[in-house]
Amino acid sequence: MLSNFFQIFLLISPVFLLIILGNILRRIGVPDLSFWEVNDKLCYWVLIPALLFHFISQVSLSSEMLFIYSAIVFAGFVVTFCSSIFFGKLLGYTPEVWTSILQGSMRQNAFIALAIAGSFYGSEGLKIASLFMFIYVPTINIIIITTMVLALNKTEEKDTKKAISNVFLEIAKNPFILAMIAGLLVSLFPIEKISVLIDTTELLGSAALPIMLLTIGAKIKVRDLTLKVVPIVISNSLKLIILPVVVYFLASYYDLSQTEIVVAVIFASVPTAAMSYSLAQQFGADHQLMRAILTTQVALSFITIPLLLAFIA
To answer: Which residues, including other chains, have CB under 8 Å from residue 253's CB and lie 6 or more apart?
Structure first.
């Protein structure tokens, strides 16, 4: 098992080395700081949607596969959602604190998951990870943002309803979701008729992950990090250990292939999304705690991910 751990560690280490490199480049100002903002928008609006479109458009999606993947995602969400609220209430945390724990335990950095799945299984891994992302993106945004709006609401009921309706509007405009829906529609056509589109999005998508990983690293800021040990331990334990274990047993129960099981666990075991910090600021949660959770999860996942995969891969 130890040798397996080191093999997996070396296999996924380029993913984390790119994250570290992105952080170093941002610190030394090469390129200048404005580059990272522009780069983030390029990835969000063009490169990642192209990557998702490319792989979803070539997937033959059955209703049974969609049901199984959805069941795995939802069951994992239920466990971490209920656990976050339980510990928050048990320990008497304010909504500002327990909603940050919730984000840390439920959100996934899908870009890291895509990169690791690609490292393991190439295009096949990326196809499966893209399907998980198709289910995950709208679901997690509805659950998390609605919960935060209700828990942290400091406005009138009318404003609350408007805020929740805005969640659905933003999801409908999300370029990832639009690209994946477009990919599903295109998958109905014979591939030879859309080969130019497939080849173009493949070229764009090949640039997406390395650039996105550099950007993730550039966004991590350790300076002024405030460590609130117990909330961080709760969130990190749920996200990096409990959720992947739950997903593994569910995937095994549904008798998925080894590749599908490993990709599902990869998707569950990656650190929380970088946008969690922005949402914490936007809705009035404890953004200092959110930054600490995000930073520590990225650091810890360098060890926890290969450790988990060493047992199942």
So the answer is: none
The whole-model pTM stands at 0.89
Would you identify the CATH topology of the domain 33-312?
A: Na+/H+ antiporter like fold (1.20.1530)
Tokens found for residue 5: 């751990």
Contact status, residue 205 vs residue 54, Cβ threshold 8 Å: yes
The better pLDDT of the pair 97, 168 is held by 97
> Residue type for 77, please?
F
Alpha helix ranges (H) inside 152-228: 157-173, 175-186, 195-219
**30-44, 144-158, 222-236, 243-257: which has the minimum mean pLDDT?**
144-158
At 137-184, the pLDDT tens digits run: 888 888 888 888 888 875 555 566 666 677 677 777 888 888 988 988
**Separate counts of helices (H) and strands (E) for the chain:** 14, 0
Q: How many residues does the chain have?
A: 313
> What is the distance of C-alpha 239 from the center of its chain?
11
Where helices occur in 31-109 by DSSP H, the ranges are 33-42, 48-56, 63-90, 95-106
Residue 107 phi, psi dihedral angles, 5° rounding: -75, 145
| Residue 217 contacts residue 22 (beta carbons within 8 Å) | yes
The reported pLDDT for the residue numbered 253 is 92
